[in-house]
Specification:
By secondary structure, this protein is an alpha+beta fold. Helices cover 29% and strands 24% of the residues. The protein has 16 helices and 32 strands. The strands form 9 sheets. Strands 25-24-23-22-28-27-26 form a 7-stranded antiparallel beta sheet. Strands 2, 5, 8, 11 and 20 form a 5-stranded mixed beta sheet that branches. The longest helix is centred in the C-terminal third of the chain and has 25 residues. One of its GO terms (molecular function) is zinc ion binding. This is RAS p21 protein activator 2.
C-alpha cells in the first residue's frame, strides 16, 4: 500500500501494495500536491535586540530535513502573508511535513531560522479541511531527525566458569534507512548503543550513505556473575530486568568537525517478556524524545490542511468497478451510466470533485471523448431557453470538460501564455484605469496604454497558438460546436458560443488570473501585478461574450481553428529548467570534483546544459536521441536524487536538488521522448565504473541493461495515470455516498411503479428509471465486493516497533 496527499495545503495519501511510498496529489492532474496558503504573525523574539522588524522573511516546505520548496521573500514585515501553491510528488517515505520561517540575511552567510512548524505524518488528519494557527517552535539541531533503524534484541542465559547463571542481552544494529543529507551530501553515520549503567558501545563508521548496513552485535550482561569485573557487567535483580532500557543513537562522523546528532530510539527490555527475541524497525526520535522547555514567543504560522487516506489494493480487486466505469460512454441514456450516477449522488457533498478520477480513468483508456460528448448533449437537451446561456453554469458536463482542459492543456498554456506572463511580471508596469484606485502620480492614459499593450500581446499569442492546441481539446470543441448547431439551428453564433465558454472563460482567462495554479509562475503575484492580471483576464473573458462573438470576425475564425484537427507542436518552448550537479564526461571516474554545477534546460526539441542560466549551451542533446530516462542507484556515486539520461552517446548522470525535482525531471524528459524510435526496454540502474557495471558486474560497457525500463504511456496523452489509484478514489466517493445511492435506487423504483411521482426524484437526473436501477444494483454488488477486499486486508501501520 502507498500514500497520497492534497490540499490547501491539501494532502491526500494513497496506500499502494505495489508502490510503498507517499505522494501528494494535484486536484487537476491527479499528481501529488501540496497547496500552501499561509500567513505568519509576530515573527521573531517578543522583545530584545533580535526583534525582526526590518528583515525580509520567507517560508520553506521540507520533508523531514530535505527542503523541497520555498516561498518568495516577503519584504520587511513581522506579519507577512505567504500565499503559495506547490504541486509535487513525494517519492519516498517521510515522518514529518515541516514549514520553516527564515529571515533573509543581508550580511551573514546563512539565513537566520526564526522557527518551524512540524506536523507528523500520522497527525495530518487532525487538521483536515480547516485553517489552523500553529505556534512556531525553535529550530533545534537535536530535534531535526528523520529515518529509521533496524534492531534485533535477544535475552540469553549463560553458564559461567564457576557454574552460576547470568543473563545476557544481545543487541544487533542491523541497518538504517532514510538518514538525512549533511550539507547536501550523504552522511557518514555510526551508531552508539547504551544500556542503563553500562559503557557506551559504538559501530564502525559507514561512509557516504543514508542507508547504512551495520550488522554489528553488542553484548550486555544484565545480572551479576562471579566474573564481574567492569561496568559492562553490573548487578540488576532478575525481577528488575524489565525496567531496563536500550538507547540507540545515530551520529554523523564529523572527522575534524563536531559530530552531528541524527536521531535516537529507546527500547524497553520488557518487550522480551513474552519472547526471548525481538526484531523490528524503529523510527528515529529527537534527543530526549523531543521534550523541551517552553520556547520564546517566536510568532505563529497559519496553514490550511486537507488530508484523506486511501488504501490501494492489488490491481485485480478493481477490475469489476473499473470495467463498470469504462462502460459509461456506451450506456444509453448517459444519465444511467455509473460515471453519471457518481456525479449525481456526490453533487451535494463534494460538488463535482468526484468526477476528476473518472475523467482521468476514461482519459487513460481513450474513452473520455465519447463520454464528454454524451454529457454535453444531455446538458444541451435540458437547455430550454436562450442559446447564449449554454455551458455558462457549473454542471457535470462543464466540470468534466474543465478537468480535461487542465489535464491535457498544461503544455498548451505554457507555449501560449508563459512568455507574455513572464514579461508582465518582470516589467511590472502599472495598468490601473479605475480613477478610484489610482495612486498619487499615476497617469491614467499611460496606464491605459500599458494595459492595451499587454492585452494585445496576450490576444496575439492566443490567436497564433492554433497549432499547439492538444488534439483532444480540438476534438471536444468540434463536438461541442456540432451539438450546439444541431440544438439551436436558427442561431448562427451558438456554434462559437459553445466553444468560447470553455476556451476563453474557463481556460485562458482563469490561467491569466492565477498563473501559479497552472505552474506558469512559481509564486503568487504581488497586489499590483495581481490587479493587472485581473484587468487582462476580464478583457479575455469579454472576448468570449455573446456580443463579441457577433461582432468580432477574428474571434470566430480563432474558434473555428480551435475546432480543427490538432497538429504537432511547431514552436520551441522551454518545459523545465533548474540548477543541477552533472557528472563530468571526462576521464576521472570518482571524486567530488567530478560533479559540476550546471544549468539544465529541456525544451520540446532538445536537452542542454549551460555553465550558468542564460549562458551558451555547453552540450545539446536532441530530444529525438533520448533512449530512456531512469533513476540511478544511490550507491553508484554515493549521492542521492540521481537520474540518468540514456542517449546515443554515454549516459548523462545528473543529481537534482531534491527528491521532488528528481521526479519532475524524469517525468518531463520521459514525456517529451516517449515517442522516440529505438527506446530501450532495459537499462543499468547503476554506473559503469572501474571497468564493470556496478549493478550486474558485467565488464562490457555495451552490455544490454539488467533491469526493465519504466513503462511509458501513449504519447498523445502525456500523463502518468495510476488507474488503480483513480478507481480507489472512485470507490471512496461511492462509499461515502452510499445513503444517496440508496435514495437514488428508491427513486428509480418509485418512478417505475408510480409513474409521475417526482418529488423524491428531483434531486437526481433519471431519464430511464429501469436502466438506472440496473446500474445502481450492479454498482452495489461491486462496491460490497471491493469493501470485503479492504476488510480482509486491514489497515496498515507504520508505528515504531512494528515488524
Amino acid at each position: 500500500m502507498s500514500s497520497t496527499y492534497s490540499g490547501h495545503i491539501r494532502l491526500k495519501p494513497v496506500h499502494h501494495h505495489s508502490a510503498p511510498w507517499p505522494y501528494i496529489a494535484d486536484p487537476t492532474t491527479g499528481k501529488p500536491l501540496i497547496r500552501m496558503q499561509c500567513e505568519a504573525k509576530n515573527l521573531g523574539p517578543s522583545s530584545g535586540p533580535n526583534r525582526l522588524r526590518d528583515l525580509c522573511t520567507f517560508c520553506t516546505i521540507s520533508l523531514d530535513q530535505e527542503e523541497v520548496y520555498r516561498t518568495k521573500v516577503y519584504e520587511k514585515s513581522v506579519s507577512p502573508f505567504y500565499g503559495e501553491d506547490f504541486y509535487f510528488e513525494i517519492p519516498r517515505p517521510f515522518q514529518c511535513l515541516s514549514f520553516y520561517v527564515y529571515a533573509k540575511s543581508m550580511f551573514q552567510i546563512r539565513d537566520l531560522p526564526i522557527g518551524k512548524v512540524a506536523i507528523r505524518k500520522e497527525d495530518l488528519y487532525k487538521y483536515c479541511g480547516k485553517e489552523n494557527w500553529f505556534q512556531l517552535q525553535p529550530v533545534d539541531p537535536h530535534s531535526e531527525v528523520q529515518g529509521k533503524v533496524h534492531l534485533e534484541m535477544k535475552l540469553n542465559e549463560l553458564i559461567t566458569e564457576n557454574g552460576s547463571i547470568c543473563q545476557q542481552l544481545v543487541v544487533q544494529i542491523i541497518a538504517c534507512q532514510g538518514l538525512p543529507l549533511i550539507s547536501g551530501q550523504n552522511c557518514d553515520p555510526y551508531a552508539t548503543v547504551t544500556l542503563v549503567g553500562s559503557d557506551q558501545k559504538k559501530t564502525k563508521v559507514k561512509k557516504k550513505t543514508s542507508d547504512p548496513q551495520f550488522d554489528e552485535t553488542f553484548h550486555f550482561e544484565v545480572t551479576r556473575s562471579s566474573s564481574y569485573k567492569g561496568r559492562s557487567h553490573f548487578h540488576v535483580e532478575e525481577e528488575d530486568i524489565e525496567k531496563l532500557e536500550i538507547k540507540v543513537e545515530l551520529w554523523n562522523n564529523g572527522n575534524l568537525a563536531q559530530d552531528v546528532f541524527l536521531g535516537e530510539t529507546r527500547v524497553s527490555v520488557k518487550i522480551l517478556r513474552s519472547d526471548n527475541a525481538h526484531k523490528a524497525w524503529y523510527l528515529l526520535q529527537p534527543k530526549g524524545n523531543g521534550t523541551k522547555s517552553k520556547p520564546d514567543d517566536l510568532g505563529s504560522l497559519r496553514l490550511k490542511v486537507t488530508y484523506t487516506e486511501d488504501n490501494v489494493l492489488p490491481s485485480p480487486c478493481y477490475m469489476a468497478l473499473r470495467n463498470l466505469m469504462l462502460k459509461s460512454p456506451d450506456v444509453k441514456p448517459i444519465s444511467a451510466s455509473a460515471a453519471h450516477v457518481l456525479g449525481d449522488i456526490c453533487r451535494e457533498s463534494v460538488g463535482y470533485d468526484a468526477l476528476l478520477p473518472v475523467v482521468r480513468l476514461l482519459l487513460h483508456h481513450n474513452r473520455l471523448l465519447p463520454f464528454l460528448t454524451s454529457v454535453a448533449a444531455l446538458e444541451l437537451e435540458n437547455t430550454q431557453f436562450k442559446a447564449n446561456t449554454i455551458f455558462r453554469g457549473n454542471s457535470l458536463a462543464t466540470r468534466c470538460i474543465d478537468d480535461m482542459m487542465k489535464i491535457v492543456g498544461k503544455s498548451y498554456l505554457t507555449v501560449t501564455l508563459k512568455p507574455v506572463l513572464n514579461e508582465i511580471f518582470e516589467s511590472n508596469k502599472t495598468c490601473e484605469i479605475d480613477p478610484v484606485k489610482l495612486k498619487e502620480g499615476d497617469n491614467v492614459e499611460v496606464n491605459k496604454e500599458n494595459l492595451q499593450g499587454y492585452v494585445h500581446k496576450v490576444f496575439t499569442s492566443i490567436t497564433q497558438s492554433s497549432s499547439s492546441c492538444p488534439p483532444l481539446m480540438c476534438d471536444v470543441f468540434r463536438s461541442l460546436r456540432q451539438l450546439a448547431s444541431k440544438r439551436f439551428p436558427a442561431d448562427p453564433h451558438v456554434q462559437y458560443s459553445a466553444v468560447s465558454s470553455f476556451i476563453f472563460l474557463r481556460f485562458f482567462a482563469v490561467a491569466v488570473l492565477s498563473p501559479h495554479t497552472f505552474q506558469l509562475r512559481t509564486h503568487h503575484p504581488d497586489p499590483e501585478i495581481s490587479r493587472t492580471l485581473t484587468l487582462i483576464s476580464k478583457t479575455i473573458q469579454s472576448l468570449g461574450s455573446w456580443g463579441s462573438l457577433s461582432k468580432n470576425k477574428l474571434v470566430r475564425q480563432l474558434l473555428v481553428r480551435r475546432c480543427a484537427e490538432g497538429t504537432k507542436l511547431r514552436c520551441v518552448h522551454v518545459i523545465f529548467n533548474r540548477e543541477v550537479h552533472k557528472r563530468a564526461q571526462g576521464r576521472k571516474r570518482l571524486g567530488k570534483k567530478n560533479f559540476k554545477k550546471r544549468w539544465l534546460r529541456v525544451t520540446n526539441q532538445e536537452l542542454s546544459y549551460h555553465k550558468q542560466k542564460g549562458k551558451e549551451a555547453l552540450c545539446v542533446i536532441p530530444v529525438k536521441n533520448i533512449l530512456g530516462v531512469e533513476k540511478l542507484e544511490e550507491s553508484a556515486f554515493n549521492r542521492k536524487n540521481m537520474f540518468q539520461v540514456i542517449h546515443s552517446e554515454k549516459p548523462l548522470y545528473v543529481q537534482a536538488g531534491n527528491c521532488v525535482e528528481t521526479n519532475s525531471w524524469i517525468e518531463v524528459l520521459s514525456q517529451v521522448s516517449r515517442c522516440n524510435p529505438g527506446r530501450l526496454s532495459t537499462f543499468h540502474p547503476s554506473a559503469y565504473v572501474g571497468g564493470s557495471w556496478l549493478c550486474c558486474t558485467e565488464t562490457n560497457e555495451s552490455t544490454p541493461g539488467c533491469k526493465p525500463c519504466t513503462a511509458t504511456l501513449l504519447a498523445n496523452i502525456q500523463l502518468d495515470i495510476d488507474c488503480d489509484r483513480e478507481t480507489e478514489r472512485i470507490f471512496s466517493f461511492f462509499s461515502s455516498s452510499r445513503s444517496r445511492l440508496q435514495k437514488m435506487e428508491d427513486a428509480c423504483a418509485g418512478m417505475s411503479v408510480y409513474l409521475g411521482q417526482q418529488e423524491e426524484c428531483s434531486a437526481f437526473t433519471i431519464q430511464d428509471p429501469k436502466e438506472t436501477f440496473r446500474t445502481i444494483k450492479e454498482l452495489g454488488e461491486v462496491l460490497d465486493d471491493l469493501q470485503a477486499h479492504h476488510d480482509s486486508k486491514g489497515a496498515l501501520t507504520d508505528e515504531p516497533g512494528t515488524m
